């Protein structure tokens, strides 16, 4: 009887999965037609179709277990630690990633997560630590509950972050650092600040150079702030990284370029710049400086910390070595991806020059007006949590590595069955993505229709739809 029930349950799940695949086929066809009549951004379109699939399956009362197996959202990068199910080795051991939500203070006391009941100890500790942080800030003569005239945040936290940056040899202090509500907010403030400085000097705002494929949010910010966008396509022969020759050619061809946006570890292509590549790019800026042209380098460090620490250290030391270009160097940092704290919005800017940082304060004053006091104190509490528990950062990094390995293996298995990919790139084992080139005739829709996995097309990143990005975030990689 037990065997019969198991067989019946297995048959039912197989039938339910077939029904989900039929729904998938219907909706993919519907959205393909919609693509011809809309200018909706590809990333939104893919997110919409996943949402529509889930709603349609719910309306038809299909088994949620079948839906989870046949519809997998790999569009969004952020890891939801509440949904982590991986456990390598003994439960409760260093490989039990199910406890991350509890260990990071995300899980509520008593919350059930993948069979583990959260203690809530860190959740409570963070709140106690905020009280300790507030007292420390007040002893330094700063009141987080009153109006912050400079709007860049309290000097204690900025000093801590400057100390973190000094580990790579950057000669910075609290005066070089400004807080922001995540990296995206920081980038927007920097662009507006640079634009304001240009107008004060009677200069045109100019252009921002962006290599493609690349993070497209900054492009929208640049356009909104009056910049032109100068795109430089890259290719697999250069690991999708901007080369010194390409940078030199672009700067010579477009004298209006005043900012170069560089993802030190690329989203979506997942390759990171090597130290020698960064030094070569810096030398191009140095040559132009000798000719009287100052071009700012905005280096996005969002994924520095998700890969090999030694490799991160080497590339950051290469950037820090350009002390003669300090007034051109802008470093954008965040805890969103490296520490899985996307909802907390902890970000900061490190300017290579304190004088340059002082000149940018107006952009903070005229936008956020004053950093939220409670947010600053929570940022400080988290900073202490990670400083005192470095094993947590290592655990997050190992979870990312596990998921990247599993996702690449899964994509290879699917390719053997459906012949979808021309190339599944073996990247620098950084970021939280996998970047693939599709075979002729395939696109994101056909991949979703055949496999149930939703990715983001290359056009989202200013590139070709022959490419697709899949994320290891939100959900674990299911075993086949």
Detailed description of the structure:
This protein has helices at 2-35, 42-59, 64-70, 100-103, 121-139, 155-166, 183-200, 217-224, 244-253, 275-290, 309-320, 354-359, 361-365, 373-388, 390-418, 444-451; strands at 72-73, 112-113, 116-117, 177-181, 207-212, 228-233, 257-263, 296-300, 329-334, 346-351, 421-424, 433-438, 453-454, 456-457, 467-471. The model is unreliable at 1-7 (pLDDT under 50). A hairpin with a 2-residue loop joins strand 2 (112-113) and strand 3 (116-117). The protein is built from 16 helices and 15 strands. By secondary structure, the protein is α/β, with parallel strands linked by helices. Helix 1 (2-35) packs across helix 2 (42-59) and helix 10 packs parallel to helix 11. It folds into two domains: 2-87 and 420-471, Aspartate Aminotransferase, domain 1 (Alpha-Beta Complex), CATH 3.90.1150; 126-388, 3-Layer(aba) Sandwich (Aspartate Aminotransferase, domain 2), CATH 3.40.640.
CATH topology of the largest domain: Aspartate Aminotransferase, domain 2
What Rg is obtained from the alpha carbons, in whole angstroms?
24 Å
In terms of per-residue confidence, which ranges show pLDDT below 50 for 5 or more consecutive residues?
1-7
What characteristic shape results from the CA principal axes? globular
Keywords: Aminotransferase, Pyridoxal phosphate, Transferase
GO molecular function, one term: pyridoxal phosphate binding
Organism: Micromonospora mirobrigensis
GO biological process, one term: amino acid metabolic process
């Amino acid at each position: 009887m037990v065997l019969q029930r198991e067989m019946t349950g297995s048959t039912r799940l197989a039938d339910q999965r077939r029904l989900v695949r039929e729904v998938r086929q219907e909706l993919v066809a519907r959205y393909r037609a919609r693509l011809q009549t809309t200018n909706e951004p590809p990333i939104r379109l893919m997110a919409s179709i996943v949402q529509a699939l889930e709603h349609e399956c719910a309306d038809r009362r299909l088994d949620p277990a079948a839906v989870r197996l046949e519809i997998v959202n790999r569009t969004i990068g952020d890891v939801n630690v509440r949904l982590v199910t991986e456990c390598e080795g003994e439960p409760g051991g260093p490989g039990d990633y199910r406890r991350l939500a509890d260990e990071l203070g995300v899980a509520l006391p008593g919350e059930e997560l993948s069979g583990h009941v959260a203690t809530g100890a860190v959740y409570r500790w963070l709140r106690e630590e905020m009280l300790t942080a507030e007292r420390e800030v007040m002893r330094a003569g700063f009141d987080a509950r009153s109006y912050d005239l400079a709007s860049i945040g309290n000097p204690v936290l900025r000093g801590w972050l400057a100390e973190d940056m000094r580990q790579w040899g950057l000669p910075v202090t609290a005066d070089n650092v400004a807080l922001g509500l995540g990296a995206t907010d920081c980038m927007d403030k920097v662009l507006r600040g640079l634009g304001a400085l240009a107008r004060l000097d009677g200069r045109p705002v100019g252009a921002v150079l962006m290599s493609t494929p690349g993070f497209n949010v900054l492009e929208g910010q640049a356009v909104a702030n009056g910049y032109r966008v100068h795109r430089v396509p890259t290719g697999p022969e250069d690991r999708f990284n901007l080369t010194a020759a390409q940078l030199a050619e672009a700067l010579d061809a477009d004298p209006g370029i005043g900012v170069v946006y560089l993802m030190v570890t690329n989203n979506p292509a997942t390759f990171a710049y090597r130290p020698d590549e960064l030094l070569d790019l810096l030398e191009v800026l140095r040559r132009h400086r000798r000719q009287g042209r100052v071009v700012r380098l905005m280096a996005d460090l969002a994924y520095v910390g998700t890969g090999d620490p030694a490799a991160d250290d080497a590339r950051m030391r290469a950037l820090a070595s350009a002390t003669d270009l300090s007034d051109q160097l802008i470093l954008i940092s965040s805890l969103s991806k490296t520490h899985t704290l996307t909802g907390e919005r902890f970000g900061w800017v490190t300017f290579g020059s304190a004088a340059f940082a002082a000149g940018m304060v107006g952009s903070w004053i005229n936008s956020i007006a004053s950093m939220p006091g409670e947010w600053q104190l929570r940022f400080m509490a988290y900073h202490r949590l990670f400083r005192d528990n470095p094993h947590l950062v290592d655990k997050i990094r190992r979870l990312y590595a596990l998921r990247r390995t599993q996702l690449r293996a899964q994509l290879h298995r699917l390719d053997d069955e459906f012949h979808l990919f021309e190339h599944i790139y073996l990247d620098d084992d950084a970021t939280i993505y996998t970047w693939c080139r599709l075979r002729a005739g395939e696109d994101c829709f056909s991949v979703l229709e055949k496999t149930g996995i939703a990715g983001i097309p290359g056009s989202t990143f200013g590139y070709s739809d022959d490419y697709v990005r899949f994320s290891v975030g939100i959900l674990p990689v299911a075993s086949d």
